[in-house]
């Protein structure tokens, strides 16, 4: 039987191994990787329950509906869409795609130039030094990076100034009305801080407790420096109530709940609905 020469050549020709395609990186002629970029608001890579970007772990039910780990617990491990169990099966392909994705910080319009992994986006924005702060004064719509300067220029009559670099025994004394939700405190710039700005604090006068009010201190805006404080309250009842903590940093008051606070009972506010508060920061 004669063998077709073309067939023989094809059979003898070595077969080059197929290169495995990289699903997440396209290589140009020089071999450089071209990163994948995404729209930060793309719904396809956000949890359909909490609408926040997926992080490293993504879970799915047998029908392929995805949810983040926190939401799996929140919905009692029952799929939000079809009711099947969810929380045991990881969505590995989507996790691999997310791990290769890059995006810009959402505060880029305020000057942040960071390029971050998509799965790290939330953590970065939580601590981003270019995140703006809204003015806490009622009716003011200011939102920006110069909150300290804004308060000094526009609301100096509505804030309490706290001097910095004073002896540890020096405190700031103020009167607080029971109905006031907060008082704005401005810690003046330290004498050795150069051109840096001062810090803005809020003395929160919260509800949510029976037969009294809850007082706490928070710091508004960005910054890595931690500030300790000591607060003492004197009311109509004899004695002094005190609290000594580190002021947590918050961007917005909406949704914030103080984990540690000073309980001031109703009896301390009577009969004038006011208490005297002394505060030392730093």
From TrEMBL:
Keyword terms, alphabetized: Metal-binding, Zinc, Zinc-finger
Q: Name one GO molecular function term.
A: zinc ion binding
Give the coiled coil ranges.
Answer: none
Q: Where is this region: Disordered?
A: 1-24
Q: Which residues form the SIAH-type domain?
A: 100-156
For the keyword Transcription, the answer is no
Q: Is Zinc-finger given among the entry's keywords?
A: yes
Instruction: Summarize the protein's role.
Output: E3 ubiquitin-protein ligase that mediates ubiquitination and subsequent proteasomal degradation of target proteins. E3 ubiquitin ligases accept ubiquitin from an E2 ubiquitin-conjugating enzyme in the form of a thioester and then directly transfers the ubiquitin to targeted substrates. It probably triggers the ubiquitin-mediated degradation of different substrates.
Full protein name: SIAH-type domain-containing protein
**UniProt organism field:** Urochloa decumbens
Q: What is the lineage of its organism?
A: Eukaryota, Viridiplantae, Streptophyta, Embryophyta, Tracheophyta
């Amino acid at each position: 039987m004669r063998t077709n020469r073309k067939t023989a050549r094809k059979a003898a020709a070595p077969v080059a191994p197929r290169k495995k395609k990289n699903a997440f990186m396209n290589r140009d002629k020089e071999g450089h990787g071209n990163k994948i970029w995404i729209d930060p608001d793309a719904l396809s890579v956000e949890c359909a329950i909490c609408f926040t970007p997926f992080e490293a772990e993504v879970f799915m039910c047998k029908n392929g509906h995805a949810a983040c780990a926190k939401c799996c617990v929140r919905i009692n491990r029952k799929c939000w869409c079809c009711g099947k169990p969810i929380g045991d099966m990881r969505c590995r392909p989507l996790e691999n795609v997310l791990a290769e994705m890059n995006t810009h910080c959402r505060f880029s319009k305020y000057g942040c130039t960071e390029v971050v992994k998509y799965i790290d986006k939330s953590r970065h924005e939580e601590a981003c030094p270019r995140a703006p702060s809204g003015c806490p004064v009622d009716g003011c719509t200011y939102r920006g990076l110069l909150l300290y300067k804004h308060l000094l220029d526009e609301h100096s009559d509505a804030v309490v100034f706290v001097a910095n670099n004073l002896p540890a025994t020096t405190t700031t004394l103020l009167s607080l009305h029971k109905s006031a939700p907060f008082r704005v405190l401005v810690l003046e710039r330290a004498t050795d801080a150069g051109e840096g700005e001062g810090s803005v604090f809020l003395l929160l006068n919260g509800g949510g407790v029976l037969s009294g009010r809850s007082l706490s201190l928070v710091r508004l805006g960005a910054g890595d420096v931690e500030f300790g404080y000591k607060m003492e309250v004197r009311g109509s009842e004899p004695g002094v109530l005190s609290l000594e903590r580190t002021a947590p940093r918050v961007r917005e008051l909406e949704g914030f709940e103080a984990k540690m606070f000073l309980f001031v009972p109703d009896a301390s506010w009577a009969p004038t609905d006011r208490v005297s508060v002394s505060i030392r920061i730093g």
